[in-house]
Each structure stands twice: as C-alpha cells, then as structure tokens.
C-alpha cells in the first residue's frame, strides 16, 4: 500500500475541486411548511434565509422559543426577548448575535451582515417590542471582530 | 450544477477529509498525527497511591459527569474526604442512556416520556468508544464494564444525496468500489501514456499497472466497466467517475472512513460507564443537588446548593479544595468567586448545538429487507445520518435506530427549534426518503436537542477562532482553591476521553498544590 496511498491522495485533489463546487453552496429557500433548509447540514453551510422571521424560527427559537419568552428550567434560564429593555440599543443584540455570550453561541460565521440585521430588526419589532429605529447591514459589518472563524468541526464525535 | 468559477482554497480540514476519503480506514488519524493534531489523548498517570493527602484534607467536586466522578475516585483513593454534588437524579451527565419510561423535561416546557420497549435505548450523548481512548478504556477495564462491537463502516450501508442519482441511495461499497476503480483507471491510463515516467521506473510501472488492475477491478485493457447490479439499492448501471464526483459522496465516504471499521460500545447503553463510576464513587455523591454559588477565601471553598427539584432546603458545604466539573454554560448563570480571567472564560465559551433522535421500529427491516447489519448511512438531508443498531443483530421483532445525529451546524439549530414531537416527525419524514419502510414500521421516538437540556444548555464547548488562545489556559489554572475540569478543557471536546484527560490532569495538579500549600 505504500505505493498506492500517495497516488490516491493526488487524485483526490482533482475530486475535491469538482466536488466542493457542487451541492452545498447552492442555496434555496425551504417550502413554507418545512422548518429546514435542505442544505443546512453541510459543514459551514449557511442558511439562505432573508427574512428576520424565518431566521428567528430556524435558529433563535431553539432557545428563545417561538413566543420570544425564553425558557426557564432549573438550573437554566434563557432570556426573554419579549418586552426586553436590553434591546433598546440596536447595537447590543447585534453584538450578542455576532459574538455569543454565556450559553449563547456566536452566530457571526453562520449568518451574513444582512441576516443579522434582519434578525435583530425582527426581534426589536416583534414580541411586544416596538423600537422605531433599525440596524443596517453596514452597521453590523462594522461591529464584527477581525478574523472570526467557525467553531471547531465536531463531526465524527 | 453550480456555476461558481473561483476555486476555494483548501483548508487543512478539507485536506484531511480528502486524504481520509481516498486513503481508507484510519488515514485521517494518521494524517492528523503527522500534522501534530492528534496528540490529544495521552495516557494520563493517576496520582500515585504513595503520595497521600494531608490527613483530614477535603475536596468538593461539582458535577457528577465522567470528569467529576473520576476526580472524586482519584482524590478519595489518596485519602481526601470528598463530597460530590450533581444536579440530576442520575449520575453521568451527558454519559446517558434513555430507556422506556424515562421522563425528560426540557427548556420551553415540553416533556417527553420515552416509549421504547424494554431492552432498547438511545445514547443521546457519547455513543462510541475508539480503541485509542485509553484513559476511558482503563476505567472500563478496571470497573468491569462489558463492551461490544459498534459497527462503523459497512459496505452495505448507504450514501444518499438528494442531488445525485435521482435521490436514490447507493451502497457504500458500490460508491467506494467505483471510486477506487476510477482512480485506478486514471492512474493506469496516466502510467501507460508515460505521464509518470519521471517518477516511476519502467519496472515499477509494470507492478503499478498490475496493482491498479487488481485493486480497481479493471478489464484487460485497464478500463473500468464494473459495478455490481444485483441489488434494488444499487443503480441499474455502473456509476461513472463523473457521476461519482458530482454526487459529493467522496465527502460522506470520508465520514464513513473516519475510524476503523469497528469501535466499541458498552453492552446495554453508554450509561453503564456512568453507573460503573458511580458504583465506585457512590458514598461521596449527592444527586439532585443544584449548586447555587461557589465562594472561596484563603482557607476554604464554600458551596451552597439546593434541592434541584424544589429549590428548597439550601445547604452550605465547605472543603479545603474544589474540582469544578460543571459545564461553563451553567457556571455562566451563577455566582462563582474566581479571578477576572477565569470569569471571562466562563462567560466567553458557548456550547455547540447537537441533536439525536431515536426511532423505534416494529421490525428490523434494515436487516430483513436491506441486509444492513450495523453501520451508518450518510445523507445530505437534515438528519445527516442513520445508524443501525449493532446489538441484537438478526433478532426477530423490533429495533431502535439512531434516526438523526446532527452536530455543530445549522440543521442542529433547526431541529432544536422544534418541539420534541416535531423533531421525531421530521426524522421519520426524512428517513422514509431513504427507507420507505419507515412509514409503516415507525412506532415511537425520542428526540434530544442539547440546547434544551437545562443542566448543560448545549452539546459541548464551541472552541473556535481565537477563543482557545483567549481562554483555554486561563481556565486550566488553579484559581485559589478551585480547579476546573471537563471535556471542554481538553483537546478532545465532546468525548468522554477528553473529560478524563482533563480531570486526571486537574486532580494531579491540585494534589501537588495541596501538598505544597
């Protein structure tokens, strides 16, 4: 096998070039009744969702719940976004989404500037929140830390 | 197909994937070792029994998972008086098996009651033990936990892509053979056209051609025309090289090849490991105890805790030292008296999402109809994997499949966002695209979204970017009288082995500190 393995490796470079250009990069919106983006399970796949409402229901709802009221069960507490005074400054939720905080994961590498802006604007105008101002994608971009990278790949665990 | 023109640069992980896909079993580990990434699991020495603790000295261990219980066992062995506080009513933390009758509440208000028949289980956390996780295996051997084979790679499991072969699954063996045959064909062609004259001698070229013909099952003219066609799960004609590359299967084949063909599992469920450790630590463990604050001064550590169910009956325990093996997520929501750097680490390292779904089927159709005995099917659907039970093969009647295992990606968040019933419903819906038998045979299921489990709030530490540089070494330092431990403080995050390398290292350092204090 000493002979064969380096050669297998060399061929693989060709396979990689063809294959990485294919499926997962292709984005498509899920049917309205489907709570999944078909390609979202790929490594470092992004969610091709534009609407704040969709982004919320696919991701944020996991902890902040469908009604935005968060969750509480000993010993954990996920904060409510409903009627949350901390959302008054639009920069604050955007920073938390980008960097994570406490138990909340960082979404800076999963979501684009536009998606983060859409999600922040959605929660600031939903769940009894009625903030009049909104955040623009350019402002989100300016909040990003330099060189943020995705968490370590855990596949194979 | 995608029309993107630019070529993505190859990451180290992609290169490892690529080598893994083609070089076969174990190659990823080998490459990682060569790249200096696989030294994560050294054999840790236990505290020598000859170095006894100072008489009367005591340790509080917080968290009754694998790390915490091993810390308690090792410290008590050398004479510390140990008390361990665990939030749940069972030992083990994520080392957990769910069986029929188990009631599982989650954040958001839903409660599941597992309806599996007697004898079946789901390991929602760790589920397989590699042969080189030597610290875990040493406890397993010491404590006498029976192991059995868990099949990882089987040529009869399936690769499935919604974007290839009209969404019909292909056997791992079929795709794998097509891959080697394609490689062999190309290489033979290159050799015969003189492309390798500079690097392979004429004499070796003869041997190379012979090897390629045999390995790739090529015809006399070194052409690949093969491919078995005797199975309803195989395409009607041989897979071509072009189809294979387009399918993206090579990436799934890497996963199928990540380990040797078999790993191990405890007979009867992963929690047999937890209960074996508990058997050795029992006298020290107080279950159902929710820690509410951790304080220290120059003389002692003082921890308050309450009844985890009622929040009542507050008590305070003190000790000379503390090993804190609780999740950072939980620590981030309570009072912990530590220095600023550790406090920043506790707040700064969130946990990754993951889900697992167990599905009970009336009939072991994967064995009876599809001749799949253990192993894993890979798909690009949100469920990502279906794992077939390695236990009770060939028995009549029911079986429990791992119907979805999604970790660290957007689909894991999407599953978490659903109610447990919806998670199960979608796992069945997606799975039936691969095995149409699901629709008739599905009976009941249980679905764990790790961010909804209140005692952990996620699957495992999501180290990434510069987080390790910022917080890892800080979190490993003994802060006054407290040392932190757990898989999150190892290079094997989300493995029990990581919990042990961290814990054994932490208690050894704490012991040294205690003796020199």
Shape of chain B: globular
Put simply, the count of helices of chain A is: 5
Strands of the biggest beta sheet of chain B: in what spatial order?
A: 11-2-1-15-24
Low-confidence stretches of chain B: 1-16, 18-38
Largest interface: A-B, 70 and 90 residues
Global outline of chain A: globular
Order of helices and strands of chain A: HHEEHHH
> Gap between N and C termini of chain A, in Å?
28 Å
How is this structure best described in words?
The complex is a heterodimer of chains A (157) and B (517). Mean pLDDT of chain A is 82; it is low at 1-27. Chain A is mainly α and 157 residues long. Chain A has a domain at 51-148: Orthogonal Bundle (Cytochrome Bc1 Complex, Chain D, domain 2). In chain A, a hairpin with a 2-residue loop joins strand 1 and strand 2. Chain A has five helices and two strands. The longest helix of chain A is centred in the first third of the chain and has 17 residues, at 4-20. Among the domains of chain B are: 98-155 and 263-270 and 352-452, Polyamine Oxidase, Chain A, domain 2, CATH 3.90.660; 171-258, de novo design (two linked rop proteins) (Up-down Bundle). Chain B contains 17 helices and 24 strands. In chain B, the strands form eight sheets. Chain B has a five-stranded parallel beta sheet with strand order 11-2-1-15-24, with helices on one face. A four-stranded mixed beta sheet of chain B has the order 9-8-19-20. Chain B is globular. At the A-B interface, helix 1, helix 2, strand 1 and strand 2 of A face helix 1, helix 5, helix 6, helix 8 and strand 17 of B.
């Amino acid at each position: 096998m000493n002979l064969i393995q380096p050669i297998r490796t060399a061929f693989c470079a060709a396979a990689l070039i063809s294959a990485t250009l294919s499926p997962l990069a292709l984005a498509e919106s899920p049917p309205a009744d489907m709570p999944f983006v078909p390609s979202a399970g790929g490594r470092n796949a992004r969610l091709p969702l534009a609407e704040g409402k969709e982004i919320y229901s696919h991701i944020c709802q996991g902890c902040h719940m469908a009604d935005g009221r968060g969750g509480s069960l000993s010993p954990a507490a996920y904060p409510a976004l409903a009627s949350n005074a901390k959302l008054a400054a639009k920069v604050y939720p955007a920073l938390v989404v980008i960097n994570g905080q406490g138990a909340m994961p960082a979404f800076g590498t999963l979501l684009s500037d536009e998606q983060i802006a859409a999600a922040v604007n959605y929660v600031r105008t939903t769940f009894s929140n009625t903030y009049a101002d909104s955040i623009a994608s350019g402002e989100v971009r300016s909040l990003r830390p330099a060189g943020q990278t995705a968490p370590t790949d855990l596949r194979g665990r | 197909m995608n029309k993107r023109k630019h070529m993505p640069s190859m990451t180290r992980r992609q290169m490892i994937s690529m080598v893994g896909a083609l070089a076969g079993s174990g190659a990823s580990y080998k490459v990682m070792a060569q790249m200096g990434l696989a030294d994560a699991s050294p054999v840790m020495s236990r505290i020598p029994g000859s170095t006894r603790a100072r008489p009367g000295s005591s340790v509080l261990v917080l968290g009754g998972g694998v790390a915490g219980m091993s810390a308690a066992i090792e410290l008590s062995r050398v004479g510390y008086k140990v008390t361990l506080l665990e939030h749940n009513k069972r030992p083990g933390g994520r080392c957990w098996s769910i069986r029929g009758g188990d009631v599982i509440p989650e954040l958001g208000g839903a409660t599941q009651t597992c309806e599996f028949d007697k004898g079946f289980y789901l390991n929602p956390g760790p589920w397989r033990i590699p042969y080189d996780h030597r610290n875990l295996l040493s406890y397993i051997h010491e404590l006498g936990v029976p192991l059995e084979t868990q099949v990882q790679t089987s040529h009869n499991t399936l690769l499935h892509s919604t974007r290839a072969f009209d969404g019909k699954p292909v056997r791992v063996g079929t795709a794998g053979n097509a891959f080697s045959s394609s490689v062999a064909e190309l290489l033979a062609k290159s050799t015969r056209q003189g492309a390798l004259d500079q690097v392979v001698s004429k004499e070796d070229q003869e041997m190379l051609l012979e090897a390629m013909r045999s390995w790739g099952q090529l015809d006399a003219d070194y052409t690949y025309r093969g491919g078995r066609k005797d199975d309803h799960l195989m395409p009607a004609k041989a897979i071509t090289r072009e189809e294979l590359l387009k399918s993206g299967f090579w990436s799934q084949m890497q996963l199928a090849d990540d380990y040797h063909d078999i790993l191990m599992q405890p007979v009867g469920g992963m929690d047999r490991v937890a209960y074996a450790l508990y058997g050795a630590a029992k006298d020290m463990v107080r279950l159902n105890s929710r820690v509410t604050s951790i304080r220290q001064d120059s003389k002692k550590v003082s921890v308050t805790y309450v009844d985890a169910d009622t929040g009542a009956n507050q008590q305070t325990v003190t000790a000379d030292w503390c090993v804190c093996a609780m999740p950072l997520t939980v620590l981030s929501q309570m009072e912990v008296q530590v220095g600023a750097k550790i406090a920043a680490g506790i707040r700064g390292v969130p946990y990754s999402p993951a889900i697992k779904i167990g599905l009970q089927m009336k009939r072991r159709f994967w064995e009876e109809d599809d001749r799949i005995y253990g192993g894993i099917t890979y798909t690009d659907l949100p469920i990502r994997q279906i794992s077939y039970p390695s236990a009770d093969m060939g028995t009549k009647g029911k079986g429990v499949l791992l119907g979805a295992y999604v970790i660290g990606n957007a689909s894991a968040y999407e599953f978490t966002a659903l109610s447990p019933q919806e998670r199960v419903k979608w796992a069945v819906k997606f799975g039936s695209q691969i095995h149409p038998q699901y629709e008739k045979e599905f009976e009941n299921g249980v679905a764990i979204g790790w961010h909804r489990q209140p005692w952990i709030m996620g699957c495992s530490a999501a180290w990434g970017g510069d987080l390790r540089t910022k917080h890892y070494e800080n979190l490993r330092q003994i802060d006054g009288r407290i040392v932190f431990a757990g898989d999150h403080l190892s290079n094997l995050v989300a493995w029990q082995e990581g919990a042990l390398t961290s814990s054994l290292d932490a208690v050894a350092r704490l012991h040294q500190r205690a003796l020199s204090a």
